[in-house]
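**User:** Hello, beginner here. Are you able to go through the protein record under this note? It all follows right here:
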Amino acid sequence: MPTWLIVLIVVVAVAVLGAVIWLVTQEMQRKRLQQRFGPEYDRTVAEKDSPRAAQRELAERERRHKELDIRPLSASARERYAREWTQVQENFVDQPSGAVAEAEQLLNALMAERGYPTEGYEQQLADLSVRHAKTLEHYRAAHTTQQKRDGASTEDLRDAMVRYRTVFEDLLTDGADDEQHHDRRNGHDHSGRDHDRDPERRDTDRHETDRHETDRHVTERQASASPRTESNGGR
């Protein structure tokens, strides 16, 4: 066999092998990004010119996220934020529009304390998408309602509150898992069976629970106001 033919075969084989490796690498990257970003992956692909451009965008988000000083909250900080959220939720009864604005402000404060930059809504979305992609659509929908809150219906505002709470609790508890794992290793499981459940089912259940919780606050505040109205002759 001529030497030039042997060289040609080797070159072709190396080229084919390189192409296969490249394709496999790209497929692994696509699957990894899909798994990490979930629906945000499909959304980004739809917004970009090509899947490759979307993957570069998402990889850049990961790179930026690694440079952020993201930190979990202490137990006392989580309790403080939980109390503040309860107050905001109670304010919804008398001032639905104002309570939604307060909810976004409290969420921004929580982001800042966790280490997320809060300048610029679009950048917030990009930064949150790396670790909180599963609740990002809740944030988008709530923010849209908040922007037009003076013209939004009470039901729309109630839905925004529920969605903000979903994002709020996701940020509040992220990073607390390490403590729970430590407790379980030491024979103390405070999380019940919730950690064994399907994440999407858990998120749906939490969304419904949050809606019922908001309704409960509204009902309790209205009920507590009724005796005062009657005692004052309806004034």
Q: What stands out?
A: Residues 33 and 58 are 7 Å apart (CA to CA). The chain is about 80% helix and 0% strand. Residues 178-202, 222-235 have pLDDT under 50 and may be disordered. The radius of gyration is 25 Å.
